[in-house]
Amino acid sequence: MLIAGVNLYAMAIVLEALLGWPQWVAIVVAGFFVLGYITLGGLSSAIYNEVLQFFVILAALIPLTVVGLKRVGGWDGLTDSLTGEGRTEGTGGEDFLSAWDGTGIGEANALGANWLTIVLGLGFVLSFGYWTTNFAEVQRALSAKNLSAAKRTPLIATFPKILIPMVVIAQGLIDLVMEPTLGKEGSGLEYNDAIPVLMRDLLPNGVLGIVVTGLLAAFMAGMAANVSSFNTVFTNDIWGAYVKKDRPDAYYLATGRWITAIGVVLGMGTAFIAASFSNIMNYLQTLFSFFNVPLFCVFIIGMFWKRSTGPAGFLGLLSGTVAAMLNYFWLYKQQVIDISSDQGANFVSAIVAFVVGAVVMVAVTLVTRPKPVEQLACLVYGTRSPGMSEPSAEGEDAWYRKHALLGWGAVILAALCYLPFSL
């Protein structure tokens, strides 16, 4: 629910900047809209809404990028403004157009990170943790009609995930040229204002309405994903498993609806926590380093090591979370270690969380009794459960549904998008 609050806060920023609504009004109104369609429609409504909203988001972001590029003289004009003789005062240089310049170990940069912390902290534990343990993503795969479709779910989602940053990053670079004081002290503009500022300065009223609709759709989709995940986990894995067992489906449906309402209210509260951060991405990565990374550590070790035990997983998860928090709140915030940005500190916290969690989990596993292999069927890599295999559904053998094709296709597309900015 901490992440759900991010979506409400982001929506409040847009409505405040463009419509003049107070943030608390925008948060409450948006929260009740999300509550309505999740409570009435359940997971299906959330998923179908997210699919439709995705195209609305594209209809919003692409025109904003196109108009912005035209205003700064196209791609050549943008790169010249950032790096050449036309460079705008207050912007950087070649580093803005390169993935790795300035990230050598010992080199100073605004991010406060070097290539090692970026690769291990962001590229490995934070990214892998997002794709494997963030329940908003996992739940979509679990709702698929069969195992083959579930495997395709994250593979298909990879393609828009690769392309969307191209639009978003371009908007950030345009902002650097058009609003060079963005995020600087005394400017009155935070990094969270980047897209609303572009919308305000570039778009006519008609297109502005489409863009606002797209952003609101994006934020509501994110909020719905987190709330529906929250009610599923609480209702099935906590309430139904330990508190009220073997009740009729109608009872758990009613419980899920009540938990949805509670989750939305909690999301409204956490939106004000997000407001205390000058950069939403810093807040998200802080949460991921505290919670997703330790969970990913336990998940990946437990999935590949039959010897691992339940107590080891719990203590590994707990110790990883505590270690990340100590690194962030004590070592970084109290300036025991010198890191120049929250984002750089988050990468280090993620690495610390994974290493500490892994060491504790392995150590505790060696002194605790493992479960019999028979109880691990289909839960640990390399195990099989008799009778669990399912026949292929009609059309599953089509070439365009092959998992290897989708996976390698995503890898090649990512490389093609990445290499021009890394060589």
By helix and strand content, what is the structural category?
Answer: mainly alpha
Average pLDDT level: 82
Number of domains: 2
Number of DSSP strands?
0
Please tell me the CATH architecture of the largest domain by its name.
Answer: Up-down Bundle
Radius of gyration: 23 Å
Summarize the biggest pleated sheet.
none
Treating each run of at least 4 consecutive H or I residues as one helix, how many helices?
Answer: 13
Give the overall shape.
globular
What's the end-to-end separation, in Å?
Answer: 40 Å
CATH superfamily of the largest domain: Sodium/glucose cotransporter
Question: Which regions contain 5 or more consecutive residues with pLDDT less than 50?
Answer: none
Element order: H for helix, E for strand = HHHHHHHHHHHHH
Assembly context of the chains: single chain
Fraction of residues in H or I helices: over 70%
Content of β-strand: under 5%
Question: Which CATH first-tier class of the largest domain would you pick?
Answer: Mainly Alpha
CATH topology of the largest domain: Sodium/glucose cotransporter
Any overview of this molecule?
By secondary structure, the protein is mostly helical. The chain folds into two domains: 1-91 and 136-277 and 391-423, Sodium/glucose cotransporter (Up-down Bundle), CATH 1.20.1730; 112-133 and 279-389, no CATH class. Helices cover 70% and strands 0% of the residues. It contains 13 helices and no strands. Helix 11 (310-332) runs antiparallel to helix 12 (342-366). The longest helix is centred in the first third of the chain and has 49 residues, at 23-71. The mean pLDDT is 82.
